[in-house]
């Protein structure tokens, strides 16, 4: 067993070098965990590796959301095409997992089956398709009437076959269960057949109806035999890993330094504005590499304008709390180090006291735009 574990480890390292950007994840089928109990790597394409149990020639891996995982997020399959009875497998999964999350991972292990067992299954399936077709047609006046449209009947026949093969997998990427268009055409043509009008028990033995049904049954049987004659594997056992965690990704923030233009007022068709350098902090909306592009490039920024502003009358405009204009906004990366900023500026204008009026402070908000450079401080805020 130790020798096999060493082989798997060396094989995993080789796979990591081969695929480069893929990260190797070794699954221990006995302990039912990954990489000696470590969390799954986040935000990277994975390569699952592990031991192939005796007799297994097909392994299906499903990644599902934790807790309510019914529909898989991603599914991939390893197949022993060369029938060399491989002792290890390697299977890429180009589905980066989210950081600080949990997933359910399902492993289905299939073994090959002999032709006699497949033939017995085929007979059971064909008896069901025979019964379906016999119940789907009857005489109607001087013709034959179907219980449903031909395309719907073909779909139901295919579903019937798929249900019988629910625990089997076909060793090909091609669609394994699909009836030909000739079947649908044959079912449609049955409605054009003329039948002598009969009543009572005679209707059930109408020779034209029986002949048409038998012909359709034979055609479907032939295609079912073709499907069953392919290379199939049967589900042997399943291993399920519940609520397995992914690695955490630390949060971060950055220093934002730029130059902005603040709109101050618009009176008598004169637009009043001023500009000033500013500095502050930016917090990304998402630091995940698999988040939508807008979220990866956008940040919430806040800070202070380094100089007070002046309106068109020369009045000095400062800000709240620190005596300088404060801002809160959104910045978006235009280029690697250049960001566009826009948001709100929190201002305060002081009107000096007069002989008749006391000093008056007026607080208000105005928009601003600017360009800045973001300097990543590389300080983690996460775990």
What is the fold-level CATH name, i.e. the topology of the largest domain?
Answer: Porin
Average predicted local confidence, pLDDT: 84
Q: Span between N and C termini? A: 36 Å
Which strands sit side by side, in order, in the main sheet? Answer: 12-13-14-17-18-19
The tally of structural domains comes to: 3
CATH class of the largest domain: Mainly Beta
CATH architectural designation of the largest domain: Beta Barrel
Q: Tell me roughly what share of residues is in helical segments.
A: 10-25%
The coarse silhouette is elongated
- Count of discrete alpha- or pi-helical segments spanning 4 or more residues: 7
- The helix/strand order is HEEEEEEEHEEHEHHHEEEHEEEEEE
Stretches with pLDDT under 50, minimum 5 residues: 1-20
Query: How many runs of DSSP E, i.e. beta strands?
Result: 19
Q: What is the makeup of the main sheet?
A: 6 strands, antiparallel, barrel
Tell me the radius of gyration: 35 Å
Characterization of the model:
The protein has 383 residues and is an alpha+beta fold. The chain has three domains: 2-112, no CATH class; 115-232, no CATH class; 254-376, Porin (Beta Barrel), CATH 2.40.160. 25% of the residues lie in helices and 40% in strands. The protein has helices at 2-19, 115-135, 150-164, 181-189, 201-204, 207-228, 293-297, and strands at 23-28, 33-34, 46-51, 56-65, 74-79, 88-93, 102-112, 137-140, 143-146, 168-170, 232-245, 254-267, 270-284, 298-305, 309-310, 316-319, 326-333, 339-351, 360-376. The strands form four sheets. Strands 12-13-14-17-18-19 form a six-stranded antiparallel β-barrel. A five-stranded antiparallel β-sheet has the order 5-4-7-11-10, with no helix packed on it. The two termini are 36 Å apart.
């Amino acid at each position: 067993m130790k020798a096999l574990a060493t082989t798997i480890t060396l094989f995993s390292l080789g796979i990591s070098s081969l695929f480069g950007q893929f990260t190797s994840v070794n699954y221990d089928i006995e302990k039912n965990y990954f990489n000696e109990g470590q969390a799954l790597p986040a935000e990277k394409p994975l390569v699952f590796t592990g031991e192939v149990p005796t007799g297994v020639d097909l392994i299906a891996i499903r990644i599902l959301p934790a807790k309510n995982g019914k529909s898989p997020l991603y599914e991939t399959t390893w197949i022993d095409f060369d029938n060399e009875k491989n002792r290890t497998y390697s299977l890429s999964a180009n589905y980066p997992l989210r950081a600080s999350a949990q997933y359910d991972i399902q492993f289905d292990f299939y073994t090959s089956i002999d032709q006699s067992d497949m033939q017995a299954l085929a007979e059971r399936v064909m008896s069901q398709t025979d019964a379906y077709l016999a119940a789907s047609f009857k005489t109607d006046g001087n013709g034959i009437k179907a219980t449903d449209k031909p395309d719907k009947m073909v779909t139901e026949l295919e579903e019937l076959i798929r249900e019988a093969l629910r625990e089997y997998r076909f060793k090909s990427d091609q669609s394994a269960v699909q009836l030909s268009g000739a079947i649908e055409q044959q079912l449609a043509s049955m409605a054009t057949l003329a039948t002598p009008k009969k009543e009572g028990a005679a209707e059930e033995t109408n020779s034209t109806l029986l002949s048409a049904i038998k012909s359709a049954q034979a055609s479907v049987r032939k295609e079912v035999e073709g499907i069953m004659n392919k290379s199939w594997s049967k589900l042997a056992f399943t291993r399920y890993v519940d609520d397995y965690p992914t690695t955490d990704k630390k949060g971060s923030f950055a220093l934002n330094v730029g130059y902005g233009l603040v709109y101050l007022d618009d009176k008598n068709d004169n637009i009043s504005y001023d500009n000033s350098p500013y500095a502050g902090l930016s917090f990304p909306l998402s630091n995940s590499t698999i988040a939508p592009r807008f979220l990866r490039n956008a940040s919430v920024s806040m800070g202070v304008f380094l100089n007070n502003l002046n309106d068109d009358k020369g009045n000095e405009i400062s800000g709240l709390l620190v005596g300088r204009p404060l801002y809160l906004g959104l910045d978006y990366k235009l280029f690697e180090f250049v960001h566009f900023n826009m948001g709100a500026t929190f201002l305060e204008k002081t009107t000096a006291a007069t002989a008749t009026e006391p000093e008056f402070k007026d607080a208000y908000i105005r928009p601003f735009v600017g360009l800045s450079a973001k300097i990543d401080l590389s300080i983690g805020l996460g775990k």
